[in-house]
Structure formats: structure tokens, C-alpha cells
Amino acid sequence: MVEGELQQIRERLLKINDKIKSYSSLSRKPQLSDEEEYKPQKDSSQREVPVEEMRAKLRAINDYIRARAQGKNVKPPVFLRVEPEPLPKERVADVTEEEPVEQIGETLEEPAAAEEEETTTVVLPTLASRGKKSAVRTGVGLDLGTAYIVASREVEGKRVFVKSERNAFLSVRCDQSTKDLLGKLKIKYVALQDKLYVLGSMALELADIFGRETQRSMNMGILNPSEAESIPIIQLLVKNILWEPREDGEVCCFSIPAQPIDRDQDTIYHRGVFEGILKNIGFKALVIDEGYAVVLSEMEDQDFTGIGVSCGAGMVNICAAFKSVPVLSFSITRGGDWIDKSAATVLGVPTTRVSTIKEHGMSIKTPANREEQAIAIYYRNYIHYLIENMAHVFGKSKDTPNFKEPVDIVFAGGSSMVPGFIDVVKEEVKSAKFGFTLGNILHAKEPFTSVVRGCLFNAINGGNT
Q1: Could you tell me which residues come within 8 angstroms of residue 202 by beta carbon, excluding any fewer than 6 positions away?
Q2: What is the CATH number that goes with domain 84-460?
Q3: Cα gap 253→278, rounded to integer Å
Q4: What mean pLDDT value characterizes the chain?
Q5: What's the DSSP call for residue 215?
Q6: Model confidence, pTM
Q7: Is residue 138 a contact partner of residue 152, using CB atoms and an 8 Å limit?
């Protein structure tokens, strides 16, 4: 029986080695021309893996997963060369994540409260302090993104504490040995009925290692109808990332997408589900359009007048505001996920592979290899589509403000963080006609946390901005 199990593990390792070799050879090859087609290498000369070597590899994988689960930026084993480099410093500074905890069953266990929470260095706009005399103001911000869920609240000294969790999950084998392993590695997971799911960032890590696709509780900015587990899992993730209310009925302002111009979609059900979740936790729910949240967090110097653009994984949200009053909001259903899926299709790799390349150091202005070149091509198309549609709406809509002065546009969101993004935007804007004079093309101070800080700002003011 033991020999049979070892044989199964040996066969699995051989398959993993083949996949790793094909990815590694692609990254080492010189850049291919457009006519050349990438075909993964097939190693027909599979050798017998000695038991000791197999055990050593399993130990190395186990150590690597444990270290990543603990939040350490460690280098992967030699035979897992497809893993990305550590996150850029800016991204690490922007988001503070809690240590993973074992989470089992129908509800997730809450992590023990830290005596001293780490904070970001961002200060909220001054409008939030008017009439507020308490040292720590009540209110919580919640950015419900397709790729990430981000929460924020104010702590002492008007500092803002931000934490995030990847909005993803991955089904794994449901048995006691798997539970024991996940618990030992302190990997977040949940058991729903007779199924087991790894949650958060480790879902993406494991999916990338084993060539699988992660599952999403949200799609194009709203709850994913194709995933039956969407509601119970997003409910667990939200409960796990939020704090206990500081008082009964503390306001929690969460983001929702605006009405898209290129797809029939409503947010009534989506909004109602999250209002119910927050009410059950003890919060008073308040909603805000994503684009408007960007205006509130980034445009204090412009007297909250201008255009905020949130470039997320599922879609792009745009809002034009005049002196903090939202005048025109809309969205476009093409985001970072569209780039990932499109590039993955032409490269013949999983979307998780493209996500890791895109998020860890490439530039769309100077792609270094064929993979990055494919991503850059789709990124440019995405930006062109975005600017073209923005110009069309602002040029045709009767609700477009009659701005007397040049109007600044600020871009935020995870999809705007790739190097070269703003440069390409400026190139595209030159040929676009918005119907008013454009001012500066700006990038948010902290693009990843911009929406959640706008949500927090709105929550502290009770929506009276």
C-alpha cells in the first residue's frame, strides 16, 4: 500500500517537473518573433525519480509553502523557477496583511487582535476632521474588489490602518490528512459541506505551482453567478477581514461598481447581499461608487473637483465630480482579468502565470520577453479602449459637467500599478476629445489603497461630504 502511494506521488512529481521545464524553457528563450508560436516542450525521456530525491523535493516544496504562508519573501526551490520575485517595495508598503491563521468549518476563526496594529502613512483629507473631536473617529472603509478585498479604519494619531486579502479560493482534496497539512502550515481554508477550499493569497500560490486556475467569488465587479460557493465564501472573507464595530451601528462604507456602458448589468442583488452581511456583523452599511471614492481620497488639492478612475481586475470605474459632488459615474467591463485571460490564451499558459508576471516587475513600455510583450500588447489595447470610451461618454452625455477650468484626471487601482501605465495613458489622451480641457494626468499616491481610503473618508463623515 505504501509502495503504491509512493508511486502515485512519483508520477505526480514527474508531471510537475514537465510543466516546470516547459515554463522555464520559455523564460530562458530569446524573444520570439510574432510569426513563431510557443509550444511547451515535452520531455519523452522521463526518468525514475529515486525515493530520496522525491522526498527531498517534497520537503523543499513543504518548506517553501510554509514560508510563503507566513508572509516571508523567500526564494523558491531550484526546480520551481517559475515563481516570481518578491513584491515591489511600493506594494509592500501600501498594504499591511495579518499573519495567516488556521480557519476551519462553516465559519472562519477570527485572528487574535494585535496589541499594536501596523499602519499606513497616508493621512485622510482634512474635510473628515470637521466637527470631529474624538481622538479616534469611527467608521470603516471596505473595498470589495474582484481581485482583492481591502479594509481600512483610523487608529490613533489619525493614521490609517489597511489590510487586504486576495479575493480567490481553490478547491482541494477534502480529507483529514489535507486538513492536518493545511492546519500545520497555517494556510487559510474553509470546509463547506463536503468540500474544502484554500482561501486568499495562498490559493493563487498553489494554483500557480500546480498549473491550476483559481476560483473567484466575484466577476466583473459583482458576485460571480457561475460559482455556487460565491456568497458563503465572500461572507467568510468579509467577516474575517473586518474588525468588530467600535460602537453599535458604526458606519462601514463599501464600494460598488457604477452602471457599465458596454454591458447590461445591475448591482441591486450584489449591493443587497453585502448590506445584509455588514448588518449581521453589526455595521450600518453605506455605499459609494468606486470612481467617486478615488476622487475623495486623491483630489483634496483640487477641491474635490475632477475625474477619478479606478482600474480594477474586473472593470474600470469612472466618476466626474464638482466640489465633492458626484455628477457623472459609469464603468467599463474590461479590466486586469481581461488582460490576463487574453495574454494567457495566446501564450498557452494558465491565467495565474500571467497574473504573477504582470504583478511582479514588468514594464509595458519595455517588455523583456515574449510573455511580457503579449501582456504589454493587451495592456495597450485595454488603455486605448478605456480612453476611447471615456472620451465618448464625456463628449456625448448631457450630464457631463461644464468645467470652466482644465480638469485633472487621477488613476488608481491595482491594474494601474504596472510600470509604464501612466505614460501610455498620456499617449492615448493626446488624440482623445473629452469635450472639455484636460489638466494633469495623475497617478494616485497609493493606487492599491485609494478606493478603500475614499470609502473610509466617506464612512467617517457618514456620507456627508
Answers
A1: 65, 68, 69, 100, 187, 188
A2: 3.30.420.40
A3: 10
A4: 78
A5: B
A6: 0.70
A7: no
What does the block give as the cell for 27? 523564460
Number of H helices, E strands in the chain: 13, 15
DSSP 3-state of 262: coil
Residues 6+ apart with CB under 8 A from 38: 26, 32, 347, 348, 370
CA distance 386 to 213: 27
Pairing of strands 438-443, 407-412: parallel
Classified as helix, coil or strand, 274 is helix
- C-alpha to C-alpha distance for 100 and 92, rounded to whole angstroms: 16
Domain boundaries, the chain: 84-460
Which residues make Cβ contacts (< 8 Å) with residue 271, sequence separation at least 6? Answer: 256, 287
Q: Is 60 exceeded by the pLDDT of residue 95?
A: no
What's the rounded Cα separation, in Å, for the pair 339 and 379?
6
User: Cβ of 258: how many Cβ atoms within 10 Å?
Assistant: 23
Which of these, 66, 73, 133, lies nearest to 102 by C-alpha position? 66
- Alpha helices (H) in 132-199, listed in sequence order: 176-184
pLDDT digits 0-9 by tens, 409-430: 999 999 999 999 999 999 999 9
Q: What's the sign of the alpha-carbon dihedral 251, 272, 200, 447?
A: negative
Local structure of 195: helix, strand or coil? strand
Residues sharing a CB contact under 8 Å with residue 242, sequence separation 6 or more, in sequence order: 140, 142, 151, 252, 281, 283
